[in-house]
């Protein structure tokens, strides 16, 4: 257990950095537009820049870590994050800022591959779900809250300096764990099933961990082919999740907060403290008790219901006995706020904390190809999400926020059906056992 929680704390700071940087940009993008010329297209591309970088780096880091080990690559990811976040503060034009976001994204993409794999491979099977939810969902949410707090402080600075400080401070959490990650031991499963290292094994033994070596003799390609069905499912689920969740995370503090009559910072605080964190705590308590599938399906059912209600309120408030206005006011604002918060709570109970934690691919693939499996899932998700995110401002202008919210409700429903029929339960199961041919069951 000592090794598991040490891995969680070190791995979680990378995800904290991602949550901070994603939310911080959404909170200061209007300030940036006062100094760097932006329109719907360029602002969308700027936000999506980190996603493009993540898609590129995920595949590179995944392949290398499957052949050379997780430890060798760990620490390089947060180094890239540190440099990218720091450079944002000194960007003088759109090109420089976009490049900084791209570099930051490359670190994030690498972390989204390495951190879930490392925590999954080091965790006890009875506590693996809890460890992964804390590493990703909780730490990501805390990063978002800190971003809101730092943005609040920046209001006391000149406008030209404030947004630079907010973005630049995103380098600190990543910088704080570079050395710790470089010193982290190789994962237990990689040592036992892929590439045993005498020095590492002796170090573990001195820490009281007596590891049995049972090297997987199957080829990398064979294992990858056998894992491909679950890789595809994991990628589809992550893409569908991020289609709405990342858009809400980035544009929620701007578009939705404005529609509800809230400031972006207040929206962030309320969303995290009254819906995100409570939902995550429920997930932490239940994920290793009732399983991943039930929580995802229940969560998505709630997301679909409350997004449909929110969509109807935006499109036709007369259904709720309210007049049509450009923004929700009075009773309409209370209803809209309630619908959105309930959607956020149900998402945090299941989809956000499990699918968004990158849990699917690592739990459903072989150790020999686990990082590559996660890398494919991350790369597909980041590339698809970047496209949707870059188009969102234009789509809202064309079809309206109500229609977009309705589309996201249907995405939640489709995702729930995919999980019900195609994803096996992984609760309390040994990782490689889940993927063995003929043993994976939908239960």
| Structure class | mainly alpha
Q: What's the tally of helices?
A: 20
Helix content: over 70%
Do you know the CATH topology? Growth Hormone, Chain: A
Dominant shape: globular
H-E order: HHHHHHHHHHHHHHHHHHHH
Main sheet overview: none
Distance between the termini: 28 Å
Strand content: under 5%
* Number of β-strand runs: 0
Any idea of the CATH class?
A: Mainly Alpha
In the CATH classification, which architecture applies? Up-down Bundle
Our count of domains comes out at 1
CATH homologous superfamily assignment: MFS general substrate transporter like domains
- Rg, nearest Å: 21 Å
Flag low-confidence runs.
437-443
Q: How would you characterize the overall build of this protein?
A:
- The chain has 443 residues and is an all-alpha fold.
- The protein has a single domain (2-435), classed as Growth Hormone, Chain: A, CATH 1.20.1250.
- It is 77% helix and 0% strand.
- It is built from 20 helices and no strands.
- It has helices at residues 2-33, 40-68, 70-73, 76-88, 94-122, 128-154, 159-168, 171-175, 178-183, 188-193, 198-206, 220-260, 264-286, 292-315, 331-349, 351-354, 360-363, 370-399, 401-422, 431-435.
- The chain is globular and about 70 Å long.
